Structure formats: structure tokens, C-alpha cells
């Protein structure tokens, strides 16, 4: 009985670690794909959404799954840190996972924005979108919790640096990768998507290390 339970626990642990490792490797890929397929521009202008309807849908789905993948990413980083900094690992891992889930929920707005852009005159569609984003429920229930993701993510990676399990340049690359889409919002989508390359360079060493441990 004990042997069977131990084998089951070992299999479960290896499986969950592998899921986290795959998340670390997959997140930059879906991040790049979600941005590079997005419509041009930095806002949800009805004319842009209507003209690029297919891109809006493809990008929305990809970024939704990108946010879902971040959940095991946060748990994987917390796992790597939990024995050295258990409180930081638990709090930052939980807040980051909640932030990613809230970010995923925001992606549904793209489909509603597309629907009103295709159904109403531009001025009316823009007014409805502005009204929706002005609700306090959106601000405090979705936007602010979603932005917990970035500080929580950086806290975990910086913690790994202090624990000797990551290099100093990894959080630096992560900051660049996370900031690029915001700093280049008016540039071509390929430029915005390039942030994923920095995120991948920061996280791939951690993901590959986790995979080797469960090989």
C-alpha cells in the first residue's frame, strides 16, 4: 500500500512539475502569436476592429490561452522558490495566478467590441465601448487585479536570483519583454510581439531546468 501511494505521489509531482515547465516554454510562444496576429493601433477603434475582424478574433483567442498558460507559469516559479522563500512563493504565486485569470476574462471584451463595431455606427460603438470600460466593476474587478501579474512575476524571478537559482539578467530581460508592448503600442504588431523574445530568454533556462529534473 505504501509503495503504491509513494509511486502515485511521485508520478503526480513529476506530472505537475512538467506542466509548469511546459508553461514556462509555451508562454513566450503564445505571447508572440497573440500580439503578432492582433489588429494595428493602440486602441479599440471600431473602424480598425471592423476592418480586421479575423485578426481581432484570432488574437483574442491566442491571448486568452496565453493568460491561461501563465497560471502554471506562476505556480512553477513558486515551486522553484518555495523551499527558500516560502511566504514570497505562496503570496506572489497566488496573486500572479489570480492576475492571469483576470487578464483572461478581459479578452472577452474584444469580441463585444467587434460585435458593436459591426452592428452600429462608429461614434455609437465607440461610446458604448468607453461606457463599458468606465464601469468601476471593470476597473476594480478585472483591470487592477490583472495588473498584479507583473509585480508578482517579477517578485518570484528576483527571489530566484537571490536564492541563486536564476541569474541577474533574467529579471532584466523579463522587464524589457513585459514593457515592450506598452512602450510600442503605436508601432507595427511585430514590434510589439518582439517582447516575447525577451520573456523567452528570461524564462527558458528555468523551464529547461525543470524538464531535466523530471527526465
Provide a compact summary of the structure:
The protein has helices at residues 2-36, 46-51, 53-81, 86-106, 108-119, 122-133, 136-146, 149-162, 169-183, 189-193, 195-213.
SSE blueprint:
Layout: H1 2-36, H2 46-51, H3 53-81, H4 86-106, H5 108-119, H6 122-133, H7 136-146, H8 149-162, H9 169-183, H10 189-193, H11 195-213
According to DSSP, the number of beta strands is 0
What fraction of residues sit in β-strands? under 5%
Overall number of domains = 1
Number of helices: 11
Average residue-wise pLDDT:
92
**Helical residue percent?**
over 70%
Q: Tell me the distance between the termini.
A: 26 Å
The class by helix and strand makeup works out as mainly alpha
Question: Runs with pLDDT <50, length 5+?
Answer: none
Using the CA coordinates, give the radius of gyration: 19 Å
Which of globular, elongated, flat, extended, rod-shaped describes the shape? elongated
SSE order in H/E notation? Answer: HHHHHHHHHHH
Largest beta-sheet details: none
Describe this structure in words.
This protein starts with a helix and ends with a helix. It is built from 11 helices and no strands. It has helices spanning 2-36, 46-51, 53-81, 86-106, 108-119, 122-133, 136-146, 149-162, 169-183, 189-193, 195-213. The model has no long low-confidence stretch (mean pLDDT 92). It has one domain (10-213). The longest helix is centred in the N-terminal third of the chain and has 35 residues, at 2-36. It is an all-alpha fold. 37% of the residues are buried. The radius of gyration is 19 Å and the shape is elongated. α5 packs antiparallel against α6 (122-133) and α8 packs antiparallel against α9 (169-183).
Amino acid at each position: 500500500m505504501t509503495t503504491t501511494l509513494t509511486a502515485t505521489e511521485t508520478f503526480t509531482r513529476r506530472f505537475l512539475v512538467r506542466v509548469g515547465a511546459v508553461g514556462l516554454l509555451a508562454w513566450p510562444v503564445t505571447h508572440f502569436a497573440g500580439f503578432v496576429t492582433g489588429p494595428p493601433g493602440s486602441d479599440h477603434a471600431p473602424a480598425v476592429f471592423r476592418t480586421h475582424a479575423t485578426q481581432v478574433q484570432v488574437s483574442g483567442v491566442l491571448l486568452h490561452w496565453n493568460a491561461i498558460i501563465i497560471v502554471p507559469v506562476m505556480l512553477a516559479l513558486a515551486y522553484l522558490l518555495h523551499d527558500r522563500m516560502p511566504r514570497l512563493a505562496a503570496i506572489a504565486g497566488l496573486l500572479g495566478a489570480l492576475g492571469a485569470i483576470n487578464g483572461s476574462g478581459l479578452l472577452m471584451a474584444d469580441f463585444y467590441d467587434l460585435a458593436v463595431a459591426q452592428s452600429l455606427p462608429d461614434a455609437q460603438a465607440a461610446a458604448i465601448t468607453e461606457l463599458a470600460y468606465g464601469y468601476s466593476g471593470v476597473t476594480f474587478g478585472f483591470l487592477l487585479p490583472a495588473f498584479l501579474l507583473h509585480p508578482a512575476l517579477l517578485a518570484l524571478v528576483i527571489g530566484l536570483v537571490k536564492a541563486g537559482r536564476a541569474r541577474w539578467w533574467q529579471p532584466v530581460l523579463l522587464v524589457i519583454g513585459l514593457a515592450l508592448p506598452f512602450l510600442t503600442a503605436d508601432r507595427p504588431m511585430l514590434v510589439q510581439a518582439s517582447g516575447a523574445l525577451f520573456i523567452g530568454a528570461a524564462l527558458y533556462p528555468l523551464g529547461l531546468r525543470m524538464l531535466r529534473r523530471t527526465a
